[in-house]
From TrEMBL, chains A, B:
Pfam families: Bac_luciferase. It comes from Streptococcus cuniculipharyngis. Keywords: Flavoprotein, FMN, Monooxygenase, Oxidoreductase. FMN binds at D61, T99, Y152, S223. GO terms for molecular function: monooxygenase activity; oxidoreductase activity, acting on paired donors, with incorporation or reduction of molecular oxygen. Residues 38-388 form the Luciferase-like domain. Belongs to the NtaA/SnaA/DszA monooxygenase family. The lineage of its organism: Bacteria, Bacillati, Bacillota, Bacilli, Lactobacillales. This is NtaA/DmoA family FMN-dependent monooxygenase. Its EC number is 1.14.-.-.
Length: 443, 443
């Protein structure tokens, strides 16, 4: 891990269920409305991301229906494992990071899936290991949601067991030597007999190493338990801060936790979630966001009311398409209960109407840039140079044209500024992310 | 299901772990020794099978290491789900039948995997639902092997739950209508609240139907419990008889069981396992099989001893490369303890040496034809016309040249004789196998 490498940001892409981060973007003219079931399109988008040297695809997941499909597209792909496999077969360099629950999988099955995928992608797989805290998911597995303590207890064991199974086929013992007749050295393919409180598995898992040894672990979720899990295992962390200060503090905490667990701070890459709408002008970008808002008038009314509450004002009866009068803005106060409030107030004070303020994405679940490619590049540069993040998990409003805009317009700007690599540094995800080869457990 | 259709045999192909059915065939000059990890090769072989109009690939599986890799290639692919996905993306018509355990999977996860794969393959997936009776597999899941009664109790519930989840997204409600803004009709996407003794799952599984509705079920395993499971659910059965009489009786039993469960007998297709070595002459084919036997002298000695026991003779000290003297053959008796014994004795009596008798595959786990393409076609025709089987699950000794030989030499013979289709009858696996569209549970 050289200093040189550390100076450039790493970027992973979220296509969500194939549309992007805005759950009504499927209605835009640019959208392919049945993208959810269209694997050809999914693969094409991944190929475009690879052309833009995006480090990896990142797929969130919860094994349950988690939003209302009457008007919204799904929050997750039909199946991340199958999407990753399809993309792996049609790309050469881009990494593939999938979210798989430690609560709602069997360790042996998941170890097998991910190692196989790592072998056939020639070392490009990462595993975002999450405990899953959704009751609807638990119900799909005939369970009530276990306590946080139990879920994290199981998560630690689950990762240990998976990494143990990954190592149960020794390095360098896949011989397939026609002369001697030795296919493998069975002395180095051994059961692990893992006996935890939550997980027991014998092994061996009969799969040889990939080019990167085994997939790196990612983590998401800012609880103390989550940070501890990341400190022990994670090479990448998916983070959700809304401000640079929050992001810096979180990153420092993660780096300290890695060191506390006997690892190098630089072994953890923090990827901050970030959403964008790119157009030729800011006004054009805002117009697209207004359209997304207007697709659902009921929800828009709710969002306006919430925006009012964020800045201490009652928006009942106002014309939301007009900027607020100065007298109102002087009374407005950012609500400390929502970290996004200062940004909302700032936009209102810039003279944007409540609708246009919402169109800035001020109540999205990530920071949002709505504007030109330069606006997006500027944002990423500011956060990166402030030490807020090692990289970004970018989420286009609509993937079907958003990836193209990012790859063709933002990536060259970042490259010109020396902030983003000109090409993949190697063949494997570990090489892309400047992580050491790893095979088996780290401890 | 027309009579016309029923007159032709259906063929599925087993590539086993990528080499074929002989676990030392990886040492043959024609073999690619690292085929186990070579997904490109696996996909190429599937494409060749599709060129030959093979109805489907069939992948057996046990989630455990089940043979000795010191000298043998593995019994199973690294991961059938990932292999099926890779093949699905690179082919258009061939079906994909994978074996997945009802004991060592979560119903929700497997329902999701298989339905997703069915959607992206446009309706080409089948599921061979097995209970798995291997202790080593149980140990990989922290379990002791459950009783047969429990395993089959769980299997019935597991299939019911999976089919319930498959139907939990209503037909025709994936609307994605940009004009009305309705993405799906949530009134028709409903939990199933399945509450069994072994399986509980709520759903819904948020995935729309494939072109065939949902994957057909396959079954394997000749116990009364297995036959009952097939009678309730199976559209295809993988069978292991050694003689035509045995096969006919088994097929009749399955057909009767389907009717007992309120289904049409023709809804069950029996696929008999069958292995082959094809060469330009029988002697050449036998030479290849001798080479396979000679790769392991210790095992060869054991096999010779077993062959002796099968025909009531002691082979200690004989020259196994010489035919047995007439005096010995007159004393020989087929051992009733092994259904393969009459065939072994028959070959010895034809004047083949013990080695060449073994080279005929008389103690393989399926009937074997070692000879020319015509010999193979004759065998399949005899069994098919005798009513022994609706089709065959063919296993080449080495897939790397065996599929080519079958597709290029045997398939045209079968087609010329009117025994095998000239092209796929439709787009989906159900169409290929003459099965009705199905969505949800049959009962």
């Amino acid at each position: 891990m050289t200093q040189e490498r550390k100076k450039q940001m790493k970027i992973v892409l979220q296509m969500v269920s194939g549309y992007g981060g805005e759950f009504r973007s499927w209605r835009l003219p640019e959208a392919k409305a049945d993208a959810y079931t269209d694997m050809d399109l999914y693969v094409e988008m991944a190929q475009l991301a690879e052309k833009g040297k995006i480090h990896a695809l990142f797929m969130a997941d919860t094994p349950a229906l988690t939003n209302h499909l009457e008007t919204e597209s799904p929050m997750h792909s039909m199946d991340p494992l199958i999407a990753m496999t399809a993309v792996a077969r049609a790309t050469k360099r881009i990494g593939l990071v999938g979210t798989f629950s430690t609560t709602f999988n069997e360790a042996y099955n998941l170890a097998r899936h991910l190692k196989t995928l790592d072998v056939i992608s020639h070392g490009r797989v990462g595993w975002n290991a999450v405990t899953t805290s959704t009751s609807a998911a638990a119900a799909n597995f005939g369970q009530h949601l276990a306590s946080r303590q139990e879920r994290y207890g199981r998560a630690h064991e689950f990762i240990e067991a998976v990494q143990g199974l990954w190592r149960s086929w020794g390095e360098g013992v896949y011989l397939h030597d026609k002369e001697t007749g030795q296919f493998a050295d069975m002395g180095q393919i051994r059961p692990i007999h893992y006996q935890g409180t939550y997980i027991q598995t014998s092994g061996p898992l009969p799969i040889p190493p990939s080019e990167q040894g085994q997939p790196p672990i990612f983590q998401a979720g800012p609880s103390p338990d989550g940070i501890h899990l990341a400190g022990r295992f994670a090479s990448g962390v998916y983070a959700n801060p809304f401000t640079i200060e929050e992001a810096k503090a979180y990153r420092q905490m993660l780096r300290a936790e890695a060191e506390k667990n006997g690892r190098q701070a630089d072994e953890i890459n923090v990827f901050t979630g970030f959403m964008f709408t790119i157009a030729d002008s800011k006004e054009e970008a805002l117009a697209r966001r207004r359209q997304l808002l207007e697709f659902d008038q009921d929800e828009l009314a709710q969002r306006l009311a919430y925006l009012g509450a964020m800045v201490g004002l009652n928006f009942q009866g106002i014309d939301p398409y007009q900027p607020l009068p100065q007298s109102w803005l002087q009374l407005a106060r950012a609500n400390p209960g929502d970290p996004r409030s200062p940004r909302a107030l700032e936009v209102l004070k810039e003279g944007y109407s409540p609708i246009d303020t919402l169109a800035h994405g001020v109540i999205n679940y990530h920071p949002v840039v709505v504007g030109t490619a330069t606006d997006v590049a500027d944002f990423l540069q500011e956060w990166f140079e402030a030490g807020a993040s090692d990289g970004f998990s970018i989420v286009p409003d609509l993937a079907h044209d958003g990836i193209k805009a990012f790859v063709e317009q933002v990536v060259p700007l970042l490259q010109d500024r020396g902030l983003f690599h000109q090409d993949y540094e190697g063949q494997t995800l570990r090489e892309h992310l400047d992580l050491p080869y790893q095979y088996g457990r780290q401890e």
